[in-house]
Design brief:
- The structure is a single chain.
- The strands form ten sheets. A six-stranded mixed sheet has the order 8-7-6-9-10-11, with helices on both faces. The chain has a six-stranded antiparallel sheet with strand order 33-32-42-41-38-39, with no helix packed on it. The chain has a five-stranded mixed sheet with strand order 16-23-22-19-20, with no helix packed on it.
- The relative contact order is 0.08.
- The chain is built from nine helices and 42 strands.
- With 623 residues, it is α+β, with helices and mostly antiparallel strands.
């Protein structure tokens, strides 16, 4: 009897367990989820990606270290990348709320609307939200807007009725977001059932989500079709929250928003070429229980390299040595600079600084095309041409004209054009140096009485600081003219007869020697006139007499009394002034000192025999 009763009890329990179905309260994705939200390759080769990592309940996992991640592009590992946790509350969102208003949602709609209003109230002022309701077909209740009042009014008018066209509503939501540049997502409140009346299939929904980088975040309520919602979230890169309960729907919205705000920023420089096509970025996170990954497509955008010049411009005249130092702004690091002149290779620079000193004197004077081609690490290339006019580095002209008849003492005015300063200007007659001028304005006086009548070549030679030479050559005609030498010959004959030729001849010889010494050698200084004897510099052997209230020394020749050699000399280097103790020499700039007898000084009263060094020039002071 007892056995019979026990058997009946067991059978009854089995029958009840078969007849009464078990309801699943919560069904979650049981693994960690990595969700790549967006990829920005607009500054290619720099690529940035926003992604989040959430636990099985959809809560973000914070403070993960870069060592936990691996990154690859087109299945090739990226070795150098950075991953930074961020609370991205400033970047605007674009969200579409899709609410199921089919008949099966009658009991849950009120709580869903209340949770949606609360969610909208937590969004930032720049976040865009749209509202779609669906039953037999989707209805766009409100386009994307920041107006919270319009969204609230739209929610208040929702009523549950009819069948469910879930797939069509998701296609409509994706369509609202496809042109948006913000971080975008579709939040769906539904039981997950599709009654078969949609025009689109589940696979078409996933394809559109993938195409437009749209993530679905389903919140399943009621008797949920778990398969649809789990696949929808997993394949689109979102996560599903199933049966949170009426009071916890708001928490589900908060989980989604937290997932948006607590993110990671990946940044790296791609090694791919800027080919303008799509490539795959894959981010993987390894955690103790497994591995989760997400991939996203990005385009290796070609970008234009910018080349500009601070010293050169189109149509500019150049001469001598031209410093080519382009300013290059490129998406990737500069790999190579190729320079051509008139489409012929000049040089290739393959390391920084990308500069070149071009000797334009090797080309003929006239118009030339300078071409610069830059290649960067992303494969971007840019070529830029400059039309330049090469002119002589030194141009010399004078007031003489070809075949000009001249006589007596004539004044020759010389005009010199040079970009880099003039060292000296020399007057030559028939290739014999006649005179030298060191300062502008350049002028010479030529006494043609001492020149044989006839045609002579007058050559004026100017040398600049880079030892470039320019000259002018003019043939002139020295006329036959009265010569004082005829008178002297007559007087000389008489003096010979009078026996006084020798003393006079000696005296004249002394006068002639004095006239022929424009540069007084060392040790032959005139008594009583202190001088600087140039030992090294622009004019070795020249004697500079220290006359006047102030004698200026400097590299800028046209504004100084004594020109100095070398870039270590200042444009206005020093001054010499007569004082009661003698002659005081004083440096004008601390960074360009004076060296007296191998000792650096700011100022000193010169003594006989002092050796002065200024720049690359050296002088001996003699009293």
């Amino acid at each position: 009897m007892k056995k019979s009763l026990m058997f009946c009890f067991i059978v009854s329990v089995l029958i009840v367990s078969i007849l009464i179905p078990t309801t699943k309260i919560s069904a979650q994705n049981e693994s960690v989820n990595l969700n790549m939200i967006s990829v920005d390759s607009s500054a290619f080769p720099t690529v940035q990606a926003m992604f989040s990592v959430s636990d099985p309940q959809g809560f973000p996992i914070k403070d993960l270290q870069p060592e936990s991640f691996t990154v690859s592009e087109d299945k090739k590992p990226v070795s150098d990348f950075s991953i930074t946790p961020i609370n991205n509350a400033d970047s605007p969102l674009a969200i579409v709320l899709v609410i199921d208003v089919s008949g099966s949602m009658t009991k849950s709609l009120k709580d869903s609307i209340a949770a949606a209003k609360e969610f909208i109230g937590t969004l930032g002022p720049n976040d865009q939200v749209a509202l779609i309701s669906f039953n037999e077909k989707p209805t766009v209740v409100q386009e994307l807007t920041t107006d919270r009042t319009l969204l609230t009014q739209g929610l208040d008018n929702l009523k549950a009725l009819g069948d469910s066209a879930l797939f069509d509503s998701l296609i409509a939501a994706t369509g609202l977001l496809k042109s948006r540049t913000e971080r975008k997502a579709v939040v769906v409140i539904t039981d997950g059932y599709e009654t078969g009346i949609s025009s689109y299939t589940f696979d078409q929904v996933i394809n559109e989500a993938y195409r437009w980088s749209t993530h679905f975040y389903p919140i399943g309520i009621g008797g949920v079709n778990l398969s649809n919602l789990d696949k929808l979230a997993q394949l689109s890169g979102g996560f599903a929250q199933i049966n949170p309960g009426s009071a916890a729907i708001s928490d589900s919205f908060e989980n989604i928003l937290s997932n948006f705000r607590n993110q990671y920023l990946l940044r790296f420089d791609s090694e791919l070429q800027a080919d303008g096509v799509e490539h795959e970025l894959l981010i993987s996170y390894k955690y103790p229980e497994g591995l989760t990954s997400d991939n996203h497509q990005f385009i290796a955008y070609p970008r234009e390299i910018q080349i500009s010049f601070s010293e050169l411009s189109d149509g500019q005249e150049v001469s001598g040595k031209v410093f080519i130092a382009p300013k290059i702004v490129s998406p990737g690091s500069v790999q190579k600079l190729e320079i051509e002149v008139d489409h012929e290779p000049l040089t290739t620079v393959q390391s920084a600084p990308f500069e070149y000193l071009w000797d334009s004197t090797l080309l003929e004077v006239g118009e030339h095309v300078l071409s610069l081609s830059v290649l960067d690490s992303a494969g971007n290339q840019k070529t830029q041409d400059l039309n330049l006019v090469i002119v002589p580095p030194v141009i010399v002209s004078s007031n003489l004209t070809e075949n000009q008849p001249i006589s007596g003492k004539i004044k020759i005015n010389v005009d010199v054009k040079a970009a880099r300063g003039i060292v000296n200007v020399i007057l030559k007659v028939d290739d014999v140096d006649l005179a030298e001028d060191l300062q502008s304005p350049y002028e010479f006086e030529w006494d043609t009485l001492k020149t044989q009548p006839g045609y002579h070549d007058v050559r004026i030679v100017a040398t600049d600081l880079e030892q470039n030479v320019g000259e002018s050559l003019t043939r002139v005609n020295v006329e036959i003219q009265k010569n004082n030498n005829l008178i002297w010959m007559t007087i000389l004959t008489l003096l010979i007869a009078m026996g006084v030729i020798i003393p006079i001849a000696r005296r004249k010889n002394r006068i002639t020697k004095q006239e022929k010494l424009p540069i007084v050698p060392t040790g032959s200084n005139e008594v009583g006139i202190p001088s600087l004897i140039e030992k090294e510099g622009l004019n070795p052997g020249h004697i500079w007499k220290l006359t006047g209230s102030e004698i200026r020394l400097g590299r800028k020749q046209d504004e100084n009394d004594i020109p100095l050699k070398g870039i270590s000399a200042s444009r206005f280097h020093a001054v010499i002034k007569p004082v009661s103790e003698g002659f005081l020499i004083q440096a004008l700039h601390p960074e360009n000192p004076l060296i007296i007898n191998e000792i650096t000084v700011d100022s000193i009263v010169l003594k006989n025999g002092d050796l002065i060094t200024a720049g690359e020039s050296k002088f001996l002071f003699e009293e």
